[in-house]
Amino acid sequence: MTGEVLTRADISGDQDVFAVRRLGRRIAELVGMESQDQIRMATALSEIGREVLASGAAGHVTFSLAEDRVVVTVEYGDGHGMRRSEGLTLAGRLVDEVTLAAEEGRVTLVKRVPGHRRSPSAADIRAELAPLAPATALDELREQNKELARTLEEVLRLNGELEETNQGVMALYNQLSAELEETNRGVVALYAELDEKSSQLRSAAEARQRFWASVSHELRLPLTSIIGLVRLMVGQGGQPLSEEQEHQVNLIGSSAETLLGLVGELLDLAKAESGRLDPEPSLVDVVALAEALRGTLHTAVRAEGVGLVIEVSPEVGEMLVDEVMLTRILRNLLSNALKFTQEGEVRLSAEVDPEMAEVVFTISDTGVGIPEEFLERVFEEFFQVPGPLQLKAKGTGLGLPYARRLAEALGGTLELSSRQGEGTTVELRVPHRMASPEIGHVLVADDDAGFRALARRLLFGFAAVVDEAADGYEALERMREHVPDVALVDLFMPRLDGAALRQRMAEDEILREVPVVTVSGALDEQESAHLSLSKHGLRRDRLLETVREAVREAVAARRGGGADD
Amino acid sequence: MERVPILKLGDILIVSIQIDLDDQSVLTLQEDLADTVVSRGARGVIIDITAVEIVDSFIGRMLSTIAAMTRMLDAETVVVGMRPAVAITLVELGLSLGGVRTALNLEKGVVMLEHARSAEG
Fold first, then answer.
1. Domain that holds residue B49
2. Which residues of A touch B54 (CB under 8 A)?
3. What is the ipTM of this complex?
4. Which of A404, A467, A560, B73 has its CA 20 to 30 A from that of B108?
5. d(CA A135, CA A10)
6. Measured between alpha carbons, how far is A399 from A387 in angstroms, rounded to an integer?
7. Looking at residue A159, what is its pLDDT?
8. From the list A35, A43, A93, which residue is nearest B54 (CB)?
9. Can you give the residue ranges of the STAS domain (chain B) (predicted)?
10. What is the domain count for chain B?
């Protein structure tokens, strides 16, 4: 009759009643009762449970499953009190059978399971109930407590791990920052060292300049007195000298003059070195200059059968250049060439390179040439290529370096090529400046110093003033100081790039009128947009044409704007 | 012991029961409700038992008690949200919740209270 026991539970308080009725409902569900019956079962248990509590006793509930019914037995301990009370009556209306065995202190509830539902076995139901097993609230609490403790332990463990990881990270961080600091210190020290080195170098260079300048001055003075005294001695009105004496005195005089020439060259070079060469351009007729050179160098032609050929292309005509400097360079180069040529010819030719707008002077000889290993060294001061001819010829080894400095001061270049035994060719390029510049002030904004130098060279003679800026901010500053007639702007610059610079210019009251030509290293020339240039293969004529166009457009726009007002 | 919160909406108090009520909680709720009706001058009380699955004679008596008590304090009580299974069980138990008005849900409960009031007004 009682069947198989499913589970047991105790009733000792309100919460236990709830637990028991939840349990009852779950069992009803598991054995296959419909939901209304589940509620009935739970409500009946609730009534009985409260009745047990009201009688002041503690109860012990056993759920069991017989063939077609669920049997719930409630034993309420001490047997005191519970007669056929209201709770029992009410419960009786909800379940199929309620029996009270008062003398044994036991109430039995029976609820039939509808036949058409095949209920699972008691074992299955027990397995299902297992998770609910601590049916009393106290047990549940205890279980929850345990779980909480476990979770707490886990949290503590995780915390510990985290702390450990944290410590590791901190240690790593400290180590890294210490290393970084050390590297930093190293860098700072290196910087200081470099600073010191460069200032040492600077002061050494300054000292050298000072030395040269003062030595040259000090040397010149006694030399001129020697020469003057020699002239007095051999000149008319002096005491007559014996032939031998006169010869010796003349030797003294010519040596002193040679020395004076050398000192003069030294002084020039010192001046060039300290960058104090300021060209004073004037209109120079190149043909006349070349002829004058031929006259002065005529005496310098040493060997018989060495011809001096001068060819000046008629298109060179007149050019704006410092005449003294150009003459010095050419004389230096020509006398060098004549010195080291024993047969053949020395040729000076001058023509215009329209692409770069430069006059190219080429001095070629058929002389001894320069061995390859000395090609660069000939531009060092006091260097002379060793050889028999060089021993015979007087020289300081200052000619070429001086010529190169002068060429640079003129805004040009000096290149030398040579083959031993076949001769030497020197190419001097000087900007072919027009009579008067076309445009006033050009600003070149580019972080690439090489390009700025190129632009300056290309604009030489075309623009009166070329200003440079290494980035957008500097360009803005320069333009505010002195508003240019046109700005050449590189698209890619640090700090403020070309596009941003144009934006800033457009926002400025005054600078918005400045025409801009953009330059970029990336664009193909064919693909260049309007008023923009590619750095690759930039030619002077194209640059000048674009600049002219920009200026034209700006002027037209200003007129148009004026008409609108 | 858990306290059941009492919400105020205009002059209506709303009590939503979400837990299994034990004796102590029921007593506390009755006291709280009486105090609040007086202090707020509430004219209606709605007890929402949507979440309650099992209503036994104890809970039934509690609802009747509350209804009678609030009526003495000039507030009508409406029980709303009763589940069908609960209703069936209550009838089977022979409890009719005498003197307790019911409505299907909270909204209808509010309407019912307002009607009652305008009828009085």
1. 6-120
2. 21, 25, 39, 42-43, 46
3. 0.88
4. B73
5. 8
6. 17
7. 94
8. A43
9. 2-113
10. 1
User: What CATH number should be reported for the domain holding residue B44?
Assistant: 3.30.750.24
Is B114 a member of any domain? yes
Q: What are the chain A neighbours of B57 within 8 Å (beta carbons)?
A: 47, 86-87, 90
- Residues A351 and A317: their CA atoms lie apart, in Å, by 9
CA distance A176 to chain B (A): 56
Tens digits of residue pLDDT in A204-225: 888 877 877 777 677 778 888 8
Interior/surface letters A510-532, b for 16+ CB within 10 angstroms, e for the rest: ebeebbbbbbbeebeeeebeeeb
What is the pLDDT at residue A562?
Answer: 45
Would residue A397 be called left, alpha or beta, if left means φ above 0 and alpha means ψ between -120 and 50 degrees?
Answer: left
Binary contact (B89, A39; C-beta < 8 A): yes
| Interchain pair B85, A21: CB under 8 A | no
Substitution target in A21, A26, A37, A39 with the highest count of B β-carbons within 10 Å is A39
Judged by average pLDDT, the poorest of A50-54, A78-82, A444-448 is: A78-82
Residue A304: predicted pLDDT: 65
CA distance A46 to chain B (A): 7
Chain B residues within an 8 Å CB radius of A46: 54, 56, 58
Interface-testing mutation among B21, B57, B61, with chain A (most A C-beta atoms within 10 A): B57
Q: Is B2 on the interface with A (CB under 8 A)?
A: no
Q: How confident is the model at residue A408 (pLDDT cuts 50, 70, 90)?
A: confident
Token pair, residue A458, equals: 């290309």
On chain B, the residues whose CB falls within 8 A of the CB of A35 are: 85
* Residues of chain B neighbouring A86 (CB-CB closer than 8 A): 57
Measure the CA–CA gap between A284 and A431, rounded to whole angstroms: 13
Q: Is residue B23 part of a domain?
A: yes
Domain assignment present for B1: no
Residue B28 forms part of a structural domain: yes
Least confident range from A67-76, A109-118, A185-194: namely: A109-118
- Characterise A387 by phi-psi region: left (phi > 0), alpha (psi -120 to 50), beta (else): left
pLDDT at position B68, please? 93
Q: CA–CA separation, A546 vs A538, rounded Å?
A: 11
Distance from the Cα of A73 to chain B's closest Cα (Å) equals 19
Query: Token pair of A282, please?
Result: 């004037």
Do residue B85 and residue A94 have CB atoms under 8 angstroms apart? no
